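Field notebook, page 447. I keep forgetting to write these up properly, so this time I am using the form the group agreed on. The chain and the ligand, zinc ion, are recorded exactly as supplied. Prediction of the bound pose follows.
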Amino acid sequence: MLKRISAFILLLLSCAFASAQAATPQTKTILLKAARLLDVRTGRYIPSAGVLIEQDKIKEAGPLAQVQAHAPKDAAIIDLGTATLLPGLVDCHAHLLTSGTSISSQEIILNAAAGMSPTMRVLMGAQNAREDLEAGFTTVRVVGHSGIDGDVSLREAVNQRWLPGPRIQAAARKLTPPGGQALHLNPAVADQIVDQEFLQVGSADSARKAVRENLWYGADLIKVVADDENRFISLEEMKAIVEEARRAKVKVAVHATTVTGIQTAIDAGVDSIEHGNDITDEQLKTMHEKGIFLDITELLFGGRFRAMIEKRQVLSPQLQQELKAYEQMEAKQTPARIARILKSGVKFTTGSDMWFDYPGKTRGEATALMFGALKELGMSPADVVRAATVNAAEAMGWQDRIGVLEPGKFADIIAVSGDPLADVTELERVQFVMKGGEVVKNALAKK
Ligand SMILES: [Zn+2]
């Protein structure tokens, strides 16, 4: 809504003040220099690199000598010395408006949806947004757990430059089977709470209505929960969702962990599948043929969940036992699944699914833990970087504006001090962040 209102006001202003405009606005040009630049498409370095930035966009990127020759004499120079330049990172599966302090999903959702005012929640989201940006995430896709429209408000506040944060695509409320997701509530009060967090879908008609309602609140994409325990979105409902979303030219991202949920999403022709735990080779093949993205959300792999939880609570022997069994199961299954995904040729992205308040880490630092997890899962550094940049941009339909360091794209640029192709966990220690031509952070600046 805000977008529409501000567009209207801008139109009025531009009519009223057209004649009063300054003759030539000052062009801000920056020449960014570093030891190398990672071409994420090829996975190769361009040594001794430069990026020429005009206002908020990239004018030229490549070998320094070439770029420098085209730079105006008065360009401001930022020299990052021995650092490596990359495109700004993208988190395809963020929950900026939730900061859980419990191991239980039910408690996390209840605390956020019923224990906090929507205003408080958005302010918390603002803090998480700033922390994401400072860690190098210049774009995020928020896929639910934001209240009715908190992520839309956050997006607008960032776009209006009221506060620092990444570029945001907001999904508003998740569409779920009746009852919402991960909740077991007193039926007498359930709907009131569930409706704060989810749009309940019980028929093709209610599915269409839910999409339209989210669009009215300003959603950029539609997030659907295809499966939750023994409840599913039907194929008829999923098809209705996709049809409504297509009409409005927005994408559909679907949480699906079971074979049934994944198949429903594939058959309805959604844009991306989130998680995909039980995905079969046959399903990967069909996704590849249909061009459906798989968003890999494995941040908590390899004992990372336990490491986080142990910082907050003493684990009971029973919980210790359960976690151990879970870790053994995932150690056996997850690397094999990642190998199957890579072999299948399916398009993939990476998302953090970080919805915890991680003790001792900012939201951005906690989000970046996904890079170490993907490394341990056997994904090559070049694939990890692609997942979080160029692939993510395509999955979001923003390939015309972000994801690569090329002319015409937003100057969303990060730098790390080491060699990310040798050790991709360099992305957990981003030293320099620029968003839209503005320096957000520069730990490489000469003292
Ligand atoms: Zn999630």
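OBSERVATIONS:
- Residues 30 and 155 are 27 Å apart (CA to CA).
- Residues 11-23 have pLDDT under 50 and may be disordered.
FOLLOW-UP: compare against the apo run.
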